Amino acid sequence: MSELSGKVQTVLGLLDPDQLGRTMTHEHLTMSFECCYFPPPPGDEAVAENPFQMQHMHWLRQNPYSCHENLLLLQETAAVRDELLAYRKAGGGTIVENTTMGIDRDLPTLKQLAKDTGVHVVAGAGYYVDCTHTEATKKMSVEKLTDIIVSEVLHGADGTDIRCGVIGEIGTGWPITESETKVLRATAHAQAQLGCPVIIHPGRNPAAPAEVVRILQEAGGDISKTVMSHLDRTIFDDGELLEFAKLGSYLEYDLFGTEMLNYPYNLEVDMPSDSQRVKTLAFLVKEGYEDMIVVAHDIHTKNRLTKYGGHGYSHILKNIVPKMLMRGISQHQVDKILIDNPKRWLTFK
Ligand SMILES: CCC(=O)NCCS(=O)(=O)O
Asked: What cofactor is needed (predicted)?
C-alpha cells in the first residue's frame, strides 16, 4: 500500500480526508487564459481595450475572452489571497486548483496562498487542450506522458518538490485530437498506477463527455474516481444527461457565476443561468445522483473576482446553497455535494 492510500494530497502535503471541509472541485487561483483569446464582436475592438473600470464590467461579463488583460488571472495574487480568506470565513475549507501544463501553472504561488490563508489547495497534474501542447509534448509516447504525470504526483511538478493531488483538468476539444487522445490514455495509465482522482475538461459538444469516458475506460481508467467538468455548457437535454450519468463519473457543474448571452466558443450553446443550474442539480438529485454531483465556479478570468465586481470564490457558499435549499435539495444533500462527494473523489485508493 502506498503512503498516499487513504489520504488527500495538497500542495502542503498529505491530509486526512476529514480535514477537507467544504470543497470547490474546479477553480483557478493563478493562470493565463491567453491561449483562448477570442476577438471582440465587430465594432467593439476599442471597447475591448478599455481600462478595468466599473462602467466596463458589464461588457467584460458578456465578452470575458475578448480582452487580453482579463485573461491574466496570474496578475491578481494579492486579490486572490483576500478572496481565499473570505472563502474560509464563509465556511470553505478546500479548493481544487486544476491549472495544468499549458496555461501557466504556478505551484510555488499555490503553496504560498495555502500557507497564507489556511485554505487547503489541491494542485493538478497533466496537460490542458491541444493548442497548448508543445511540439515536444505532441511527439511524446503514451508511456513518456504517463511517466511525467506520475512524477508530478509522486515527486513534484515544474522543477519543484510540490506534488499534485489530482490529474487534470485534462483538456480535450471536439473532435478530440490525436495528442489529446494520447494524454487521455496516459491519464488512465497513471490513474491505474496511483489510484488517484482525475478531472476532465470535455469539448463543447454533448457527445464529448461520453467519448472521453470511452477512451479512459479502454485504457484502464477508473471512471468512479473521475470528474466530468463543465456539464453546464455541454449537455442540455435531460435524457442525454441521464444517459451520461449512467456511465458513473462525478457530474460537475462548475460555471456558477457565469451568465452570458453569447458563449463565443460555441454560439449554439445557451449558457444557463445560476437558477437553471440549481434546477438541473435538483433534477439530478431527484433522479438519485446526489452522491455523484460536485460544484465550483471555475474562476479563470479577472472580471470574476470581487475586486472587479465579480462573484468571487464564495458565491456558491453564500448565494447558491440557500437557493439549493429553496429548491428542495436538503441540507444533508447539500453537504454531500460540498463535502462528502469531493472527499471521496480526492482520496487516493
Ligand atoms: C482553464 C479554464 C477553463 O478551461 N475553463 C472552461 C471554460 S469553458 O470551456 O467552459 O468556456
From this structure: a divalent metal cation
The pick from 36, 231, 235 for probing ligand 1's pocket by mutation, whose C-beta has the most ligand atoms within 8 angstroms, reads 36
Count other C-beta atoms under 10 Å from residue 100's C-beta. 28
Q: Which residues pair with 97 in a beta bridge?
A: 27, 123
Grid coordinates representing 178 are 490525436
Q: pLDDT by residue (tens digit) across 306-340?
A: 999 999 999 999 999 999 999 999 999 999 999 99
The one-letter code for the residue type at 183 is V
Closest residue by CA, ligand 1 atom 1: 300
Q: Walk me through the domains of the chain, giving residue ranges and CATH numbers.
A: 12-33+72-346 (3.20.20.140)
Distance 3 CA to ligand 1 centre (A): 33
State how far the Cα of 139 lies from the Cα of 153, in Å rounded to an integer: 22
**Alpha-carbon gap, residue 213 to 345, rounded angstroms:** 16
Q: Are strands 8-10 and 13-15 parallel, antiparallel or unpaired?
A: antiparallel
Q: 1: CA distance to ligand 1 center in Å?
A: 36
- What are the residues whose beta carbons fall under 8 Å from the beta carbon of 241, sequence distance 6 or more? 231, 235, 251, 280, 283, 284
ipTM above 0.90, yes or no: yes
Contact 206, 236 (CB under 8 A): yes
pLDDT at site 53 = 85
Distance CA 323, CA 328 (A): 9
Is the pTM for the entire model greater than 0.95? yes
Per the annotation, binding residues are 26, 28, 169, 201, 230, 298
201 in contact with ligand 1, CB cutoff 6 A: yes
Provide the annotated binding site for a divalent metal cation: 26, 28, 169, 201, 230, 298
